[in-house]
Amino acid sequence: MTRTYIPRHPLNDLLPLEPGIRAVDHLEIPRAGYRLGAGGDR
Amino acid sequence: MLAVTGEEADVAAGLAASGDVVVRFVGPGEWLVLSQSETPEGLHRALSLLLAETAYIVDQSDGRVVFRLSGPNVRRILAKGIATDLHPAAFETGTSSNVLCGHISVNLARTGENEFELIVMRSFAVALFDDLRVMGREFDLSADFSTQG
Prior knowledge:
The complex is a heterodimer. Chain A is largely without helices or strands. Helices cover 0% and strands 10% of the residues of chain A. Chain B has a 4-stranded antiparallel sheet with strand order 5-8-7-6, with helices on one face. Chain B is built from 4 helices and 9 strands. Chain A binds chain B through residues 1-3, 6-7, 9-11, 14-34, 36, and chain B through 34, 36, 40-41, 44-45, 59, 61-62, 64-74, 77, 122-123, 125-126, 129, 132-133, 136, 139-149.
């Protein structure tokens, strides 16, 4: 099975690519499935 | 992954024995299979070799987004949108279920005492992100991409 197109992560434009300041309660979004630098991802 | 009718028990047993994957219950005979180490293609290939005769396997990697919520107030945050009892006695670590978060359908899993993962369809990811930020505002919830990929 070959994937010819890897879409952008839908939160790309809402979150900085670098980690920010982490509070005690934290929401973390893994990029699994949306590989950085591949296909349409930035 | 959807088990062929009548093969649910065999597929469940095969998934339980398939090593470095996390299995999330979606419904009877249906699961989401996650891997931190395997590529989508590699995971699809491995599961096909193991279960191709007993289950339908479809890559959902680009169609779903994972949110990992952690912290001492996580249950209070989720209680603002999810009408499910998330006390550890009722929803223990390793449990997963399809629930509504506000108006959005998510697969919710408890991955630790104070850690949950929400898997949502891609097109609802931004709306769920906004909702979670609002739900967590009282507790100064922070958010960023995972550094682990």
